[in-house]
Each structure stands twice: as C-alpha cells, then as structure tokens.
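A note from the maintainers: we've had questions about how concatenated examples are separated. There is no special marker in the raw files; a new sequence line simply starts the next protein. For clarity in this README we add a label.
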Amino acid sequence: MRILVIDTIHGGLDIARYLNVRGHFTDVVDVYRGNVGIDAATAAERSYDLAIAPVHLDPWHPLLQSLTVPVISHHDAVRWIIGKDRPAPFIEITGARGKTTTACALAHVMKGPGILHTSRGTYRFPEKDLIWKKSITPTSLVPAAEEALRIGGWCISEVSLGCTGAGEYGIITSSEDYLFAGGKKKALAEKVRSGQRLPRLLVAPGVDAPGAVQVESVAVTDGKVCRWECGGMTGTFGSPLLMLESYRIPLQLAAAAGCDLGGDPSRLASFQAIQGRMSQTSEGGIRIIDNSNSGTCALTTRSAVQYARNVTGKEEITLVTGKETGAVCEGFPREDILAVIGEIQPAMVIMVGSEYAGIGDDPGCRSIPFHYAGSLAEGISIARTLTSCGSIVLSVKCWR
C-alpha cells in the first residue's frame, strides 16, 4: 500500500520504518516543524491508500481535511504492526495521572521474566536492568513487545492518550480529564474508547467505562491496609504509601490487575516509593520529598507538602516548583502554582522555568522569598544551599 504517515515527532518515523520493512511505500510529513519528509502541500497532491495520524492532531488540520482515503491513528497503526505475534500477558496502561506508579507497582507483583516500559525507562525483569529510554508514544510499544516476546515474558507498557488495543489487558489510572487535539477532543473519552477494544479493562474510581471492571470491586483500602478479592482468592497487604493519594489508587489497581494476571499482590507490602513520585531522602537533617515528574500538578504538589509536614512534624517548606522548558507538552499553569503557594504558604519558593518570571511579584507571594532556576537540578542546588530547617519539596513538571 501507499501510506501517508503524519507527524514525525511522536513516533511517525518509526511507524514508517516498520511499514517499509513490511513492503509498504510511505511518505512522512512533519506537521509541527516541517523539518522531515515532504511538506503538507505535496502530500495533499499525492495519491495514497491509507493515512496514519496521531490522535492529538487537530481534526480540522488542513492536511487531514484534504484527504479522501481512510485515516487511522498512530495507536491503530501500532496494533496493526504488532499483530497477533505478541507477548502474554500484555498490559497497556493509560491515564492523566498515576501511569508510571501503577506500571511499576504491577511489575513488582508479576512473576517470571518480563519487560516494563515507562516514561522512566524500559526495564527487563526480574533483573530490573535498564535497557533503553524511549517516550510513551504508541510506537514505543513495538520494541518493548518484541523484547518481551523474545524473552518469553510479560509486557507492561505506559501509553499516552489511550490504548493501542494490541494488548489483552488495559488499565485507565485516572478520571482526570482535559481537552486535546486543538481543544476539540476530551482525553478521558478517547482513553475509554480505546481501552474498550481490549478484552479486559480495569479502571480507576470515577471512570465511566461500560463493561470495564471498577477497581473498588476488587481492591479496597482504608489508607493503611489494602484488601483484594478476585477469582476466588483473597488477601491483604499493608503499606505506608497507601496514606498518599498519589499511591493509593495505583496500588489498588496493581493489586486488582496483579491478582487477575497471576501475580502476587501481597508483594506490594514491600513496594518502595519511586524517584520523583514521593520518594524521600535526608541531607544534613533536611528531609527532601521528591515529587518531580511528568504528571506533577497542583494536586500532587499539595499532597507532597502535606506528606513532608506529616513526616517531619515541621511546617517550614522550601518549595521547588515549575516546569522544565520544553520537557512536557502538558503545562503547569501559572494560576495553579499561585493557588498552591497561597494555600500552603511555603517558607521559600524556587521557581523553575522561564515562563514563571516575575511570579513572585504577585500580591499573594510578596511575603515569601522567591528564587529562580533554569532547571530542576539548579533548583535543587539552590534549595540545598538556602534551606536550614524543615523540608524541601521538589514539585517540578519534567521527564524523569
């Protein structure tokens, strides 16, 4: 077939390469920067049998509007590329919040060899060896699935903006919603629609997905102990992480899915906080709570501050927050940061990111010392130098 692959930034070049190997002819168009492949005007004049476009492209984009052939998504293309020769079990995890934590927690309970693909990196289990780092665009599932198949193990993969349907088990980790594709689509609706193509779908509280399993029907917690029951098996595990909002639902999801997939949910009692997701360290009597990751937002920042104050018993917080420039498409809005600062009243703020210049001049911040940094690493360095009591909370939106 003659195929047009739209968007080279988010995995389109890899899709074209996979299809070329299978004997198809492909053209690629870089619709965002125009640096790779042919331009949109040339593509509109050529004849194709099929077009492949990312779900996040504005449906009213002129190139899409000019096409008269069927258009499938990058997610659909990945399902086609992987085909029936896939690892088992193969789990796809999507959602606005909690994907990485859920994926890592589920891998912790799984038995035998496997591949864990997350925004933190792709790891081979049980050794937990880092084998590469790739994005969580749909195309990145292909090498993860191929490696899992090679070692005869399971595959757990994060996927952005929905499931590909290549797997056999899907998890939606959050009911949080937002607009994408030029503000014309709702993210949660897309994740539910794509997740329902999988044979089994497990969803977080508040996700309306007919036919899916609600996590609370399998695993419930009182904040100290999680109780799970499925397939005639029951069990419990305790973990201090259940007290944290950012871990409670991912641990429930991991327990429910783990039980269903033949894992051992009791192993979650030994699951440790992940770097950038409420992990904690101490330096010279100062506790550092690390909440810097791609999903950092106002909600997780509040949780991190509350956690820091509970752990130390001290109110003083040095807050390192903001967004590393160009790191994550989804932003950390200035107004959200101002709301959090006004609510938690930190002793000091280190702002990361040029887009927040002058934020300390806002009326609600004038009594708080502000410093500015160009990166998370610089922000941490400044915080370590200036903090003499209490704790440091790292809450910067970035890829880690």
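[label: protein 2]
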Amino acid sequence: MIVDPFEFLVTEDLTKKSREELESMFLEREDGRILFLGRIPVASLYATFLAGIYAELTKIVGKAAKGLILTASRNGGYRAGSAIRRRYQKKFGDLTRDKAFQIAKNMITVWDKCFGWGKFEFELCSDKIVVKVTGSFEAVGYTKLKKGKSDTPICWMLLGYVWGLLEGLLDCRLNGEEKKCLARGDEFCLFEYGIGD
C-alpha cells in the first residue's frame, strides 16, 4: 500500500522523526534529481550562493531587496499553507488553530531535516507565534560570504516563507518580524508573528 505523504504531514507529529524517516516519506530520487512529494523538483545550493544573490540585489535596488525577497517568500509559503488547508478541510473538515500549528511545525521540520534550513523551535502564545532558528542557512551563508556581522537581520526567505505558511494554514493575517539574527551576532535567529488587525 502506498501512503500519500499528505497523510503523514497532517496526521502525525513529524518533529521527532529522523532525517532518514522523513526522506523516505517525502522525497524521491529520480535520474539524479530530488522530487519533493514525488513531483516538485528541489535543488541544494551553497548557503553562500543565496547570500551572494541578496548582496547583488541590494547593490542594484537598495533596501527594496529585502521587500522583494520577503514578499516572494511569503507568497510561496502562503500558497503552500492555503493548499494544505483546503486539502485538509476537504478530507477531514475544519482545521483548528492547534492542528494548523502542528502542520506548520511538520512542514518546517521536513525542510529543516531534509534540506538543512536550520533547527526550528516553535512556541504558540495567545497573541503571537515565536519561531527560534538555530543555524539558519541564510545567516550562516551571510557570515561565511561576508566574514563579518550584518547591521540588520537577513533571514528574509525563512522569515517570509514561515510567515506565509502560517497565514495560509491559519487563514488569517499576521505581522512578522525577525527580532534576532545569527548574522547580526545574536546566538540564534528569532521570528515573531503577531496576530494582525
């Protein structure tokens, strides 16, 4: 019997699974390619590659670079989150806040353990969601490329993707901000997502 990876994503707690278990659930290898969910090609890149793109984009458009990356990442996360929400509701009914939060943790756990995004810890509070990231690939890439500290937080892709994923799953608007960043000299990266108006 073939099990649909969606079933794992929405019915189990994947945060305790090993990398090998998650790869067997979500990844297929075909002709040298890696397919996520059996259909979406993914690629591994040096973390410094993305940091280099950010640096070049910032030279061209200035501070607007952050907005461009953040918006594109947030939109991508939102598409994923809302697609998961719609599919869940069609199959199981209403998606509660707690279940949506667990699914978000599961999804990020897959990206963390299978693709090296960083080690994520989530906390659901009454008025916000706090996400701690140890070893963010964006921050590590920046420090390796720039060999120094950033003046501002730079985990634009991670901040945006998680932001959009949460908004899509929870079906609400959130306010997001990176409060701490490894690239800035902090011990870890910290994202906060507050419930908006």
